[in-house]
Specification:
By secondary structure, the protein is mainly alpha-helical. It has helices at about 1-20, 25-45, 70-100. The longest helix has about 30 residues, at about 70-100.
Amino acid sequence: MILLHAVAAAIVIACALHMVLSRNLVRILLGLALLATGTNLMLFVAGGRGGRQPPLIREGAKTLGVSADPTIQALILTAIVIGLALTVILATVVLRGWHATGSLDARDLDLVEPRPTTKPVEPS
């Protein structure tokens, strides 16, 4: 079952990389969101299978028994929040680029920056 999860995560990351290498800004945005999801799946696979018990030390015990790993859960939760923030910021950048150029092609973003037509004035 872990091998199946690892293969699924690898496929998701491969699809995400294919989308990121596109020239369409929306595909790049969706590819980065999919890459964040693939990273979460890889963290899940790296955590291994723990028990179904919550990570609580029982009364009188000195160590934690077989239970779910709280570190991986915290990492995945943090990665979800960071991935969502990254997606929102990049969606804003894509929207601004589309409004400025009228195109979703990444090559057209060079047209947004003004080209200098005169020589800069040197201070005297």
